[in-house]
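Long-time lurker, first post. I've been practising inverse folding by hand and with some scripts of my own, and I keep getting stuck on stretches where the structure tokens seem ambiguous. Below is the full token string for one chain I'm working on. Before anyone asks, I'm not after the true native sequence, just a reasonable design that respects the backbone. If someone could post their per-position residues I'd love to compare against what I wrote down in my notebook.
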């Protein structure tokens, strides 16, 4: 393929003629982290940056370790240092990094981390986020060792504009993209918090929508619902080609939230003959998971929506299938109830287990729910659905901006697009 004017072919791909290829060892220093004993860990002292302090390319301080000991000045982090995870039980986490800012200046870092120190830090930090460095990390990991050595780190090669002004321009453009991503994340967090607050007030009757007043009724699950049999199949029985949709409890934990809309969700299938004893689902059914490995997932539930007239579906292993004895709830309303704090508190009180927390059918039948009129339920559900739609739109926008930034990074860090 003919090269564009002003570009050259290198072992790292096509780059501008005035760019160079350097190993990290030629342009900076790789520093090994601090080794410390359990007795050195104290409630206060110097904070040791670890893998848990790096999240999505930035520093966070929610899981901190402090030590009181003599620490060499060389491994006290400085503004502009690039902090890198070089050893971890999960291979996917090796290479994740963050740039040290003024808030972290003077901290140190642990033995499973490394710091790369260079005067070209603004540009090189972006190279650590790119496929160029990630490929080299993968090549050096080997088949069994989840670690990058200092020797390997120094050998990694990067493309580098000869003009430092171009380096800074590229870094600034990508920083602007990061700033937009961060602003969208903060807005999304704000919208989620607003929804959570509104939900707690609306679902308890503390706040009423215009046109509604009067006391709510209260019923137990046993008064409201019949419990129907569910399937007991393992994930290995599922496929993409069975004649029956199978709602797996693991998917409720990880993929489906509040509502399971069969018109939109991807649901595995099973042959009906393998789960003949399970009741067939109907729109409006409430599926509740009976076990969880954490408190947040105890009795997580979804309301069934969008199931076509000719579509067949069952609830699977570790679930309860609840169906209203008489028409009590407006469509879409039940799906929001699992997020009600007072309901979750009741479920936690009746949950049992040490490592896996479960809720029995007997206990569930005694849990109580506040129930407004169906007209008020419909209004609440519509209000919350509008908030969900706004959050979903923001999530889509955030994902699109992240993809655009990734594309920008590929184009800018290879010199395919020039800024100067």
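-- Answer (accepted) --
I ran through it position by position. Result:
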């Amino acid at each position: 393929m003919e090269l564009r004017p002003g570009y050259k072919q290198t072992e790292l791909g096509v780059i501008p003629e005035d760019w160079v290829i350097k190993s990290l060892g030629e342009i900076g220093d790789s520093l090994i982290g601090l080794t410390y004993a359990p007795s050195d860990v104290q409630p206060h002292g110097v904070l040791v940056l670890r893998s848990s302090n790096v999240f999505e390319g930035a520093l966070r301080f929610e899981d901190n370790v402090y030590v009181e000991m003599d620490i060499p000045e060389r491994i006290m982090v400085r503004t502009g240092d690039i902090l890198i995870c070089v050893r971890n039980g999960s291979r996917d986490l090796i290479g994740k990094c963050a740039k040290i800012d003024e808030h972290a200046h003077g901290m140190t870092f642990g033995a499973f981390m490394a710091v790369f120190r260079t005067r070209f830090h603004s540009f090189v930090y972006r190279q650590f986020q790119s496929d160029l460095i990630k490929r080299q990390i993968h090549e050096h990991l080997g088949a069994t060792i989840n670690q990058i050595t200092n020797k390997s780190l120094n050998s990694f090669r990067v493309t580098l504009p000869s003009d430092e002004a171009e380096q800074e321009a590229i870094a600034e453009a990508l920083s602007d993209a990061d700033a937009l991503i961060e602003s969208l994340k903060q807005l999304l967090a704000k919208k989620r918090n607003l929804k959570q607050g509104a939900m707690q007030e609306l679902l308890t009757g503390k706040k009423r929508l215009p046109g509604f007043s009067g006391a709510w009724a209260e019923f137990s699950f046993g008064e409201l619902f019949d419990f129907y049999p569910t399937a007991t199949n393992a994930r290995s029985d599922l496929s993409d080609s069975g004649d029956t949709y199978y709602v797996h409890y693991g998917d409720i934990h990880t993929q489906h939230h509040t509502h399971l809309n069969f018109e939109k969700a991807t649901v595995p299938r099973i042959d009906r003959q393998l789960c003949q004893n399970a009741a067939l689902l109907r729109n409006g059914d409430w599926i509740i998971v009976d076990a969880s490995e954490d408190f947040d997932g105890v009795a997580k539930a979804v309301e069934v929506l969008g199931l076509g007239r000719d579509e067949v579906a069952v609830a699977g292993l570790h679930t309860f299938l609840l169906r209203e004895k008489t028409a009590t709830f407006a469509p879409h309303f039940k799906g929001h109830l699992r997020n009600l704090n007072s309901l979750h508190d009741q479920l936690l009180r009746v949950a049992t287990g040490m490592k896996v927390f479960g809720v029995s059918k007997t206990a569930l039948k005694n849990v109580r729910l506040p129930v407004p009129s169906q007209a008020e339920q419909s209004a609440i559900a519509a209000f919350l659905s509008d908030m969900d739609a706004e959050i979903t739109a923001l999530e889509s926008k955030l994902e699109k901006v992240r993809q655009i930034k990734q594309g920008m990074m590929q184009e800018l860090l290879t010199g395919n697009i020039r800024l100067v």
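A couple of notes from the structure itself: Residues 374-413 form the longest helix (40 residues). The first strand starts at residue 7 and ends at 10. Happy to go over any region you disagree with.
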